[in-house]
Amino acid sequence: MQDWIVPAVAGGLALVALVLALAQVRARKRTERELARARTETDELRDRLADLERRLTRAEPPRQPTEFVITDLGSPTTDPGTPSPPVGSALFADLVLRETVVKAASLAYGVRRALDAETRNRVWFEMKREVRRSRKQRKADTREARREWQARQRAGLDGEGSAA
């Protein structure tokens, strides 16, 4: 009566294994294609770089090292009317993503560090110490104000007694 269950489960597992194998083969082929494309692009870039280096060594004599300047603010070398060179979309995306990843990583590090038990205890201790210090300061200010007020009261009474 239940003789069909074992072959059905085996067939289902075989079908799943076949689908996974096909997906693996397709992924491997796609990866190999992308790797081949990346290698050809790398070779082309290497050739272009070598060509540019040859041109630079032939065209210009070696320059003397100049002082490093962070900004050219105020120097008239750039015309404000000329636009900046365009940045490719891939470079722009890379810069934006890199900056975003750095900011997210630093935020995650800061949050993790702020929620650390040792940091919380240190903050709690400092807050407790600051509250105690402010209470002492407030009591001292109150005592000082009371002394000044009493001194003014005495001076006012002494001044009135001598005038009469």
Automatic annotation (TrEMBL):
Residues 28-55 form a coiled coil. Keywords: Coiled coil. Residues 60-86, 131-164 are annotated as: Disordered. Residues 139-157 have a biased composition (Basic and acidic residues). This is Uncharacterized protein.
